[in-house]
Write a structure and sequence with these properties.
five-stranded mixed sheet; flat
Length: 343
């Protein structure tokens, strides 16, 4: 094809919390999924990291929007602005007279409805995508982890993202069983905000709660010798009653206690999928273990807690944050042969 240099290939993990774009097997962009919009004109002022800095710190003339909620597009216009802006950022280094044809593979939650799938496809096409392929996130995560998804063997993946936790059993290039629950990173963040209000009388914003989750996030009060115990974090904020500034020291044991109910929901869902798994695939899963990916997999003690609960070894993927994006990138290189990609 004479004009192949005009075709640009992008693999996009369109996440509730972060959007990651791979180009030529490299991460071309990794930014928060957030848009800042001028209230009067409706124009986009900033996207990604710049918009995140404005989040919860803005005047009435500006609003920040997170276009994705629970893994699916909640605000179509903002999503389109964001995807268009991100593609433009990736292209800013290219010097070309012609607009390239963009071939794009996008990861979507496995529980997406037809309407939600169409919203992702339409947003990608409006933002300049000529050939748009979609891949379910657990399948992309399995590819990114390095599992042979087309083998006649059972593999189980648990992908804990920002908006959804995806649990899937994969064999012969298809999802044998899948469950998508809306208990994930965003819920953990609001659990922490609620806990601080109840126990310490401190009001904190989303950004501070997320920082606490990353710094001292854990799911078991006893980490054991495998993981380093994080130092406690000092949190400052207004007292709920008096509005005077107060500070509290938060330990990882407290966070493990406050996330307990949400993690238990994920455990229940994993057990529910395992109950329905055909016995031959079940024995493969017991042999290989279950793989954890997504930002939630970085919570300390997660693999240990799940392994004790389910009696099957759990393995955290290397670089779990980028597993879905890496898998989407692998699918992009092989769009002709992968039957599980959707046009």
């Amino acid at each position: 094809m004479a004009f192949s240099f005009l075709t640009q290939e992008l693999a996009m993990d369109l996440g509730t919390a972060n959007t990651i774009i791979f180009q030529n097997n490299k991460i071309a962009l990794d930014e928060p999924s957030i848009v800042a919009v001028d209230n009067n004109t409706g124009k986009c002022i900033a996207i990604g990291q710049k918009a995140k800095l404005m989040h919860e710190r803005i005047n009435p003339g500006i609003k920040t929007i997170r276009p994705l909620r629970d893994g699916v597009i909640a605000d179509f216009n903002a999503a389109e602005m964001m995807i268009r802006g991100f593609i433009k950022q990736v292209n800013s280094s290219r010097k070309s007279l012609f607009t390239p044809n963009i071939k794009i593979v996008v990861g979507i939650p496995s529980g997406s409805t037809e309407v939600e799938i169409r919203a992702v496809r339409d947003s990608s096409e409006h933002a300049g995508g000529r050939d748009v392929y979609l891949i379910f996130e657990p399948m992309a995560a399995a590819l990114g982890i390095g599992l042979d998804v087309e083998a006649p063997k059972g593999n189980m993946v648990v992908d804990i993202g920002g908006g959804t936790t995806e649990i899937a059993v994969i064999s012969l290039g298809g999802l044998v069983l899948q469950d998508s629950i809306r208990t994930a990173g965003d819920v953990f963040t609001s659990d922490i905000q609620y806990y601080l209000r109840q126990q310490h009388n401190i009001r904190v914003g989303e950004i501070t709660a997320e920082k606490i989750k990353i710094t001292v996030g854990a799911v078991t009060p006893d980490l054991g010798s495998d993981e380093l115990e994080p130092d406690p974090i000092i949190v400052k904020g207004p007292n709920l009653m008096t509005a005077h500034p107060v500070e509290a020291t938060i330990t990882y044991q407290e966070i493990a206690h406050c996330l307990d109910k949400s993690i238990a929901k994920i455990e229940t869902s994993i057990l529910h999928v395992l109950e329905q798994t055909p016995p031959e695939l079940y024995s493969d899963i017991v042999e290989n273990g279950i793989f954890l990916s997504g930002g939630g997999a970085l919570l300390r003690g997660l693999a240990k807690r799940f392994s004790e609960k389910v009696n099957i070894p759990f393995h955290v993927a290397e670089d779990p944050l980028h597993a879905v994006a890496r898998g989407t990138c692998m699918a992009l290189k092989n769009t002709e042969n992968y039957s599980f990609l959707m046009r």
